[in-house]
Amino acid sequence: MIAAGHAVMGGRLPFSHLPGEAMVEPITDVRDISKIAYGFFASKALFAALHLELFGHLAKGPAALDALAERIGIAPNRLATLLANLTAMGLVTQNAGRFVNSPAAARYLVPGQPAYFGDYYRFQIDRHLYPSMMAIDAGLRGDEANLAHASMSGMLEDPVEAEAFSRAQHAGSLGPAFLLAKLLDLTGARSMLDVAGGTGAYSIVLAQQHPELTSTIIDFPTVTAVAERYIGEAGLGDRIALLPGNALEVDWPGDQDAILMSYLISAVGAGDIDELLRCAREALKPGGTLIVHDFMLEDDRSGPSSAAGFFLGYLTWRVDPVSFSAAELEPWLIKAGFEDPRTGVMIPEITKYTVARKPG
């Protein structure tokens, strides 16, 4: 377990760098290149099915094409084409002319299921990340005039877009928040600063797990407006405070036992990282804990592909972000005045978390 809260910060963290995954074999066949080039067909078929609530309709029971078309309200010929794609991808199966959800689709893509993840794919991936990738050429060339968004804050200035993005972010963050709560031992911590805390998923889950913990979320005003609703629904308005603003511009409240930065270091420019780490060090109590959860490459930068892809996506919004591994992040933390950084896997092949301590 990771010790947090300065009363228990003297313990060693029981992990170190994990070895890099095996090197990906270079491809040799043009068909493998084609699979990469045509990969967007599969993602758009998934998104289209989610927008039609197809998996929810199939959850009511196996259905033949005409019956399913009537349930959904689209022509059978068009639905047949979509179903052919979903069947080829393994998302649905067909038996005697009747379609059913695959086990994964039934668990993760049916609205109302405890593990439902569809809104994250519908809103954050399909509505925001996918269209923004049209600007990747501009991002790579440094053509700031043609980026998808001048910055993350530029995208979140629109209340409608901020609502959709935040709704998706909340759906996508609840699962990792529960996982982080299992990985962190916040015994003894009374105050936490959740920097770029979004809709408050991490603060909500951690506060529920630790009744003595209070949290303050810093994020853009359009985002904290959404977070206020989720916090209220959780009945935690008296323990989770909101500080609207850009984390690089507002004054961070001090005397914190812990500071969480989730998906923040990857989203800012290279020149902003030192400033964020300086602010974190100043806001922490002696012996306090900094937790960085983010996309991270393997130490040899050979992947994984999902983490590398998210780093690529940031280049559609601004030209100065950097991709990094834990082996690159940890020296940044030491340079900023933290000690004993340790890294573990959070979401396999996508994110890791690094914990460091302010000397005390």
Account of the protein in words:
The protein is α/β, with parallel strands linked by helices and 360 residues long. The chain has two domains: 2-24 and 149-357, Vaccinia Virus protein VP39 (Rossmann fold, 3-Layer(aba) Sandwich), CATH 3.40.50.150; 30-108, Winged helix-like DNA-binding domain superfamily/Winged helix DNA-binding domain (Arc Repressor Mutant, subunit A), CATH 1.10.10.10. The protein is 45% helix and 18% strand. It contains 15 helices and twelve strands. The strands form three sheets. The chain has a seven-stranded mixed beta sheet with strand order 8-7-6-9-10-12-11, with helices on both faces. The chain has a three-stranded antiparallel beta sheet with strand order 2-4-3. Strands 1-5 form a two-stranded parallel ribbon. Strand 6, helix 11 (201-209) and strand 7 (214-219) form a beta-alpha-beta unit. The longest helix is centred in the middle third of the chain and has 25 residues, at 159-183. It is globular and about 70 Å long.
Summary tags:
360 residues, alpha/beta, Rossmann fold, Arc Repressor Mutant, subunit A, 2 domains, 7-stranded mixed sheet, 3-stranded antiparallel sheet, 15 helices, 12 strands, 45% helix, globular, disordered N terminus
